[in-house]
């Protein structure tokens, strides 16, 4: 009986470990700090923010992409209106948000499986160019929602992850308007590749 109990406990521990392996997100960041752009965004007479897209060849959760886009557009609507009231100087800055990678656990999967659905994570990049396509900056932004935290609040944490990554991206644009200063990616050392 004692041997059977030990084997049962060992098998249970191995099974639990296997389940927890699925909890970690595979989405990783490259750095904790973004470098400054080549110049302050105020050097441009017009600033355009395009709708968010997935990187070429990548297919991810469209609802996550749309939430990120909505938050970026909302965050930057007021500043863009003010910035674009200035006299044109013939220079245009184009900002293209690109979701490089996303694992977004939500809906019935999150409610039914809770933490076992796994962690969520997102890596967002802003391709900031002039009108001719010359790169001005390529900052990246990372956020994650841990499986345990997200699982016990039925996906609220997953949705807040999308808001946080959009806020980081918008904050970078706003912070680098007057002076080229860079900004945080949102990643910590555990989130790096």
List the helices and strands and how they pair.
Blueprint: H1 2-21, E1 33-34, E2 46-49, E3 53-54, H2 62-83, E4 92-103, H3 107-113, E5 120-130, E6 135-137, E7 140-145, H4 147-151, H5 156-178, E8 183-184
Parallel strand pairs: 2-4, 3-4
Antiparallel strand pairs: 1-8, 4-5, 5-6, 5-7
Helix pairs in contact: 2-5
Organism: Undibacterium pigrum
Protein name: DUF4410 domain-containing protein
Signal peptide: 1-31
In short:
This protein has helices at residues 2-21, 62-83, 107-113, 147-151, 156-178; strands at 33-34, 46-49, 53-54, 92-103, 120-130, 135-137, 140-145, 183-184.
CATH architecture: 2-Layer Sandwich
Average of pLDDT:
83
The span between the termini is 46 Å
Number of domains: 1
DSSP, total strands: 8
Query: What portion of the residues fall into strands of 2 or more residues?
Result: 15-25%
* Series of H and E elements: HEEEHEHEEEHHE
Silhouette? elongated
Which class in CATH terms? Alpha Beta
Structural class: alpha/beta
Provide the helix percentage: 25-40%
What's the CATH topology name? Answer: Double Stranded RNA Binding Domain
Largest sheet: 6 strands, mixed
Q: How many separate helices?
A: 5
Radius of gyration: 21 Å
Uncertain parts: 17-23, 147-153
